[in-house]
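We store sequence with structure; for instance:
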Amino acid sequence: MKKMLVTAIAAAAFGAPALAADLPVKAPPIVYTTTTYSWSGCYLGGYIGGAWGARNVSAQDLNGYNYGGVAGPPFGYKLNSSVLGGGTLGCNYQTGQFVFGVEGEGGYLSLKGSSFDPNSPFLPLDTLASAKVGDWYGMITGRAGIAWDRTLFYVKGGLAFVNTSTSVVDANPANGNTITANGGNNTRAAWTVGAGIEYALSGAWSVKGEYMYIGLHQTDTDCGNAAVGGGRFCWSQNLPGIQTAKIGINYHFNAGPVVARY
């Protein structure tokens, strides 16, 4: 009896490891990770592009100096296009796919144009109207967009500030008098709106393409003293909105890839 008991115990002792080896082992949990880009944080950048007038400048002789005291018909002339360039500073906040931010930019543009009054009764034409938008401008805008990882589509809107100047010069060869009606240099505030796309490169850099419209639509009144008959030599010049397109590069101080585990 004792021999049988000892034999059973020994069999159980040597057989247990074999049985344990046959039991299923629970696998460790699988951890999945994904990497997405976060647009949250502040950035600094630069850009280059072009600017052009949305339509022609419209000029008109208000006091009828060339038309016997009756206001003359308006005429238009084109502003030349300009190189655009400058710097950008802004900050973003991302929640889910939505990105919100504020941005400031400032730079250079210079649109110029001029034309003799084609309706003047004098030949050769002697009344020259001219206008200039620039040499500087700035914007303060809000920005809202939706991000697909490293690609951000956004819209912008806010205020723009731009320098303008206008003048009209009448060089009358008949009496040798030159009259200058000068609107002076002025800083104008206007609304601005636009949209763009930005793509995050490796590291902290991103590139963007952007269109903005500056709703200038400003009318300047230029006046001077008439050389003949007294009175005033006054003209109005209505400046157009300005369209801009640019490409740029930004350096992001805080944005970057985020690893999610689940």
